[in-house]
Amino acid sequence: MRKDKLAQFRKRLVEKQRQLSEEVGRTALYVKDQEDDSIKDLGDQANTAYTREFFFELGNGDRRLLRDVVSALQKIDDGSFGTCERCSEDIADKRLDALPFARYCIDCQRLIEQEERMAAG
Q1: Which residue, of 7, 66, 69, 95, has the fewest CB within 10 Å?
Q2: pTM tops 0.85
Q3: Is the Cβ–Cβ distance between 73 and 84 less than 8 Å?
Q4: Whether 51 contacts 35, CB under 8 Å
Q5: What does CATH list as the number for 1-81?
Q6: Nearest Cα to 71, choosing from 110, 96, 103?
Q7: Any idea where the domains of the chain sit in the sequence?
Q8: Distances 64 to 18, 33, 72, 76 between C-alpha atoms, Å
Q9: C-alpha distances out from residue 55 to 17, 29, 78, 115, Å
Q10: What are the tens digits of pLDDT across the range 7-56?
């Protein structure tokens, strides 16, 4: 891949990493702020528990995405960016333009999703 194209991907990934890091930090602070249940009635405690769980799940998605972004940045550094982790083929430029942190080519991504649906069903 050309150096100028890699530089564009790096810039986008660094910005995404910054955004996600801030979001994960905000979620963690919010959950921490909600931990004083000592003076709340049962309804308030239930609402706080639900809200905490909701933000925890949001945070999990952000953390997974952040992990993928950091991995993509490492791949730029080691020269493996744009290569499918499953079949080792190049990931299409259009896919990388849409998802610069994509780990799989579109064919492997479809297979993985089919396998997950079959395992769940």
Answers
A1: 7
A2: no
A3: no
A4: no
A5: 1.20.120.910
A6: 103
A7: 1-81, 82-121
A8: 14, 23, 12, 19
A9: 19, 10, 34, 28
A10: 999 999 999 999 988 887 776 665 555 555 555 677 777 776 766 676 66
